[in-house]
Amino acid sequence: MSASKLTLLRVLIPFALAYFLSYLFRVVNAVIAPNLAADLQIGPADLGLLTSAYFISFAAFQLPLGLLLDRFGPRRIGAGLLVFAAAGALAFATAGDLVGLTLGRALIGLGVSSGYMAAIKAYTLWFPAHQWPRINGLHLAAGGVGALAATLPVELALRYTDWRGVFVLLAGASAAVAALIFWGVPEKRQTAAVMRLGAQLRGIGQVFTSALFWRVTPLTVISQVAFMSVYGLWSGPWLRDMAGMNRAEIAMVLFWTSTAMTTGYIVIGFMTERLNRAGIPPMTTAVWGMLLFMVIQALLMVAPASWATGLWVLFGFVGTTGVIPYPALAMSFPPQLAGRVSTGLNVLVFIAAFAAQWGIGAVIALFPVAAADRYSPQGYQASFAILLALQAVCMGWYCYFRSTDRMTPSLK
Length: 412
Prior knowledge:
single chain, 412 residues, mainly alpha, Growth Hormone, Chain: A, 2 domains, 18 helices, 78% helix
């Protein structure tokens, strides 16, 4: 094996495994939600709160994360944070009440908060620019495989242990990947001078006061939020209560949804690149994809239960179009601000995902619980309708600025 291929494996595999765990942790509660609710006697609002704690701690650390990665490098920061994920998983496994579960979940979110950003930092340090799209695609696919692992494999594990045992295993896996990153990834320092803290903070200010940023961000954020908050928790209860599925059937549908998501990241990324070469800008592809995603959400509200599997597979595939604006927006700023543009967008996505995942539970809790602790169909329909309305408003905001020709040409 050549030195370059060996370096690729030594850098890509450990960080891809970290991203695998990040997605597994993000999605696993969709499968174990009935067990959690039954064992701890918690309602939908509390279930949404404890699951969304992952998002708020993840978001809160994004801006400091960028500064730490520049100062100490991805190997040390990525490995160190995964220790917090291991501690959080162990705390979650041993918690006896809602407070303990929420704190454990928040620690997990903090611990996996570098799963994507540390990897991108490492890839830009070690590999030439022309290899980044291919490596980035492989990295995102690892997240999709993590989402797959949270479905049927977790369901299989629950036949031999309970949800606490699953999280003990995840704690051990997190510690093992932390060790692999720390001792397996080679060290490489930046050759360019690290920007002073004051200059970095001023750059963040430039991003958040940019009119361009706020023209594109609302649509991107709400589309990603609808995808992450529903898929990461409420897809499982929806399949139970709206489609009448048991736990094994739910795990199977979510397995295929995750497969579609993994495929979507690869296929839609390839299509976007090809369409861009043909003169169709990435944001145009993104907008049409997000419109189709809205149609799928509307169908989930009104279609018969027999459509459930097909609609959720489409949900997983088309929902990935919400990531297209990340590079499109970053490329519309000066190169030295590109990282802070992506990190700033990530902060807003994860804060909003926290609010949405909790808010969906709060809306569902407004409606009476049916027999066998099943949530009301009207609760799901009301919460999905609110998400759709927000997406429609943000789509209108984006289209208004585009039609008045106020957008940067590269984003049209």
